[in-house]
Predict the structure of Beta-phosphoglucomutase.
Amino acid sequence: MSDASITPARYDAVLFDLDGVLTDTAALHAKAWKTMFDEFLRRYSLAHDLPYQAFEIATDYRSYVDGRPRYEGVSAFLESRRIVLPLGNMDDSPREDTTYGLGNRKNEMVQELIDAGVEPYPSSVQLVDRLLAEGIKCAIVSSSRNARRVLEAAGIADRFELVVDGEVAREAELAGKPAPDTFLEAARRLGAEPERTVVIEDAVAGVEAGKGGGFGLVIGVDRLDQADDLRAHGADVVVADLDELLA
């Protein structure tokens, strides 16, 4: 096992994924994805005289959606079911059965869940506060376009000098996870070399991005009983909770 010690002598910055790492919102996203896709799949199966097969969080969410930009997640899942839909446009109504329409419907659902309340993981906040006190820079790198909304709802936005989220990625034309581009851009903006930067992720796509970017330490957070998958895709260390990094 790699040494998971995060000290100023070894690292200048830590890049945190948000959902599932700092806040208990990965479950909200999974719930929104399942609700949206199950509604669509019921309509689709009836319209095409096919058996209905529900969206499964344990398999479909982890394999095709978790950690990816929203519309890429829609495309990956539909492709896995051999379902072809029009791509549509980013401003499609959430009621339209297009790739963008389904993505917008999921976003509408998750925003409703976020507005109902978001809680940060106490140990994650403790780790961020310790790192900041030691002079280590902390930033958010999230595929979500709701990252700032989540940070505000959780009351921890003031701790991060930089947020590279789905909106930033779109504006800067950065490839989403599992490509390392968003992590590399965050490190660049912080003035930190990748080899002196830590990535903390709970998604397979995220640890794969950290590994691909040549970062000094990639830590996987196992919230979904996928420790082996996280290691296989690039995690140097896997923890069940960030309190393990406080020791």
In short: The domain at 13-25+119-245 is CATH 3.40.50.1000 (Rossmann fold). The mean pLDDT is 94. The chain has two domains: 13-25+119-245, 27-115.
